[in-house]
Amino acid sequence: MKQSIQVVSLVMILVVSGTALAKGSSGGRSHGGGHSSKAVTGTGSSSSRTHVSGYTSNKGKYVASHNRSSKDHTKTNNWSTKGNVNPDTGKRGTK
Q: How many independent structural domains does the chain possess?
């Protein structure tokens, strides 16, 4: 019984280690072109904003992490819209 518990524990450790290695094997600053975003609270033209982690674009260019307004079905509440102000840069919208 004790030996079977040890074997099961070892298998679980190997599975978890393999999953962590697969996720962390991107190397360098590249995130495989995927966009990782996490909602954060904030002020501004939109009711919330989203943090986008740095990633490498399909063309091989690194894009630094940044905040953007949360996606919705309207274009009138983006930070670039006239009358709105980007809370991170203080820049007024021009579009």
A: 1
User: What is the residue whose two structure tokens read 């030996």?
Assistant: 3
**91: Cα separation from own chain's centroid:** 23
**In this structure, is residue 17 part of a structural domain?**
no
Q: How many angstroms separate the CA atoms of 6 and 14, rounded?
A: 12
Q: Output the pTM of the full model.
A: 0.38
Coil/strand/helix, residue 76: coil
pLDDT digits (tens, 9 = 90+) for 8-17: 565 556 555 5
Q: Please report whether residue 91 resides in a domain.
A: no
Average pLDDT (59-78) is 85
**HSE value, Cβ hemisphere, 13 Å, CA-based, for 78:** 12
Q: Which residues form the domain of 62? A: 29-69
Give the whole-number percent of the chain exceeding pLDDT 70: 51
Exposure of 53 by Cβ count < 10 A (0-12 exposed, 13-18 middle, 19+ buried)? middle
